[in-house]
Design a protein that fits this description.
Shape: globular
Structural class: alpha+beta
Order of helices and strands: EEEEEEHEEEHHEEEHH
Number of strands: 12
Helix content: 10-25%
Radius of gyration: 16 Å
Distance between the termini: 40 Å
């Protein structure tokens, strides 16, 4: 398991949400990239140096510090869409190889390179910017049905990462809530929401959603 690429956003206009810019256009970078825990949500801060979020209401902050997507899943979409999909095109900071990103457990921890430790926090929820960026009508529904959302991660231990760094799973919590299951619960299968309550590493707003479903 390793990083195939480390991707940093190149700001570009965002006509799809009426915002001044978007950071979804992530491009692979050479050399080491510093990773650190960002400040609170609302500032646009994210985990990789040189990157930021522009939709500060919905992106950035400690629970969405880093976004990972598996090259294997990109390859599947590449075949389905009939077009090349470069590393970073889904807006991911980390394009991984050999790692089951959507099968990762909420709260699972990954050691990357010599120093960095990241913790799986929640799935990515698709938005209008993502659909507009890919120029695919109906993309939000299509992506949602597939339940291959990729994972947001929080920074536990900072440091530098680079392409080809090995990735090791160093902790797996004692529950069965995967990234894919959490995504399904939050989108098309709300009856699954009560199952999320055992995953205490979920962001508070998702846990609150699950509690409301159970009347707690």
């Amino acid at each position: 398991m390793k990083l195939l690429s480390v991707n940093v956003g190149k700001p570009r206009p965002n006509p799809w949400k009426g915002l001044s810019a978007t950071g979804i256009d992530k491009r692979p970078v050479d050399g080491p990239v510093a990773v650190s825990a960002p400040g609170p949500k609302g500032t646009g801060a994210v985990g990789l140096a040189g990157d930021r979020a522009y939709d500060v209401r919905n992106h950035g902050g400690p629970d969405q510090a880093v976004y990972a997507y598996a090259r294997e899943d990109l390859d599947g979409w590449q075949t389905e869409l009939g077009r090349p999909l470069a590393d970073g095109v889904f807006g991911e900071n980390l394009t991984t190889l050999g790692l089951d990103v959507n099968g990762a457990l909420i709260g699972e921890r990954w050691s990357i390179g010599a120093d960095v430790v990241l913790e799986v926090s929640c799935p990515r929820i698709p938005c209008g910017t993502f659909q507009g960026w890919l120029e695919q009508d109906g993309w939000i529904k299509r992506f949602t049905r597939a339940a291959l959302p990729g994972a947001y991660l929080r920074v536990v231990e900072p440091g530098d990462i680079r392409a080809a760094d090995p990735v090791r799973v160093v902790h797996r919590p004692d529950h069965d809530v995967t990234v894919s299951l959490a995504f399904r619960a939050m989108t098309l299968e709300s009856d699954l929401l009560p199952r999320l309550l055992v995953a205490d590493a979920l962001p508070e707003e998702i846990t609150d959603m699950a509690r409301r479903r159970t009347g707690g």
